C-alpha cells in the first residue's frame, strides 16, 4: 500500500486537534473567513462583458431555432380583420406581428418611464 496517496477509507494516523489541520489529500485548510488561504478578494470566475455577450448569443440562437419551428408548424392561413382592414396571412405571421407590436409598446412605455426618472433625479440633484 502506498503512503503518498491515501485511498478512500484510510484513516489519518494522527487525529486533527482543532479541525483545521491540513489533510494530505486536501492541501491547506480554509481560512477562518471561509475563503481559501491566499485567495484574492476578487472572484476570477466572475461574469464579464464577454461572458454576458456569449450567453446572449446562445440565448438568441435558441430563440431563433424555436421561432423557426413555430413558423414551420403554423402555416395555415387565417383571416385578420383590424378596423376596416382585412386580409389573409399565415397564423405564425399574424402572431409574430402582434407580439412585435406588444414588445414595441412595452419598450416605449419603459423608455418614457426611464426618461421621467432621469429628469426627476437631475432635478433632485440640482436642488441640493
UniProtKB/TrEMBL annotation:
GO cellular component: plasma membrane
Domain of life: Bacteria
Protein keywords: Cell membrane, Membrane, Transmembrane, Transmembrane helix
Compositional bias (Low complexity): 1-20
Domain Lipopolysaccharide assembly protein A intervals: 73-123
Region annotation Disordered: where it falls in the sequence: 1-46
Residue stretches spanning the membrane: 53-72, 92-115
Signal peptide (residue range): none
InterPro entries documented for this protein: LapA_dom (IPR010445)
Protein name, UniProt field: Lipopolysaccharide assembly protein A domain-containing protein
Taxonomic path: Bacteria, Bacillati, Actinomycetota, Actinomycetes, Propionibacteriales
Amino acid at each position: 500500500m502506498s503512503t503518498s496517496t491515501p485511498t478512500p477509507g484510510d484513516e489519518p494516523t494522527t487525529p486533527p486537534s482543532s479541525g483545521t489541520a491540513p489533510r494530505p489529500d486536501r492541501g491547506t485548510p480554509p481560512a477562518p473567513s471561509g475563503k481559501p488561504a491566499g485567495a484574492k478578494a476578487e472572484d476570477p470566475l466572475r461574469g464579464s462583458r464577454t461572458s454576458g455577450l456569449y450567453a446572449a448569443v446562445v440565448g438568441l440562437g435558441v430563440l431563433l431555432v424555436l421561432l423557426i419551428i413555430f413558423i414551420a408548424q403554423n402555416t395555415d392561413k387565417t383571416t385578420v380583420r383590424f378596423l376596416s382592414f382585412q386580409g389573409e396571412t399565415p397564423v405564425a405571421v399574424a402572431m409574430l406581428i402582434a407580439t412585435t407590436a406588444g414588445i414595441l409598446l412595452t419598450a416605449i412605455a419603459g423608455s418614457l418611464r426611464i426618461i421621467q426618472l432621469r429628469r426627476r433625479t437631475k432635478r433632485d440633484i440640482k436642488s441640493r
